[in-house]
Please model this.
Amino acid sequence: MSKWIRQTHRWLSITFTIAVIANIVAMFQKSDATWIGFLALVPLIPLLFTGLYMFVQPYLAKSRQPS
Model:
């Protein structure tokens, strides 16, 4: 499961980067396509959850170890 979430996080970060680049290109072309700006939010929301999951994993592993 952790490997799958890690791989998903990597691919989401790539799509987020492409969406941000597309937004920057649209701004330089003075395009009035506001939907391009919202396009970056699509991968950003699951990217947040996968990132938080990976952030919490080491702390959960520490709490599960016997003292």
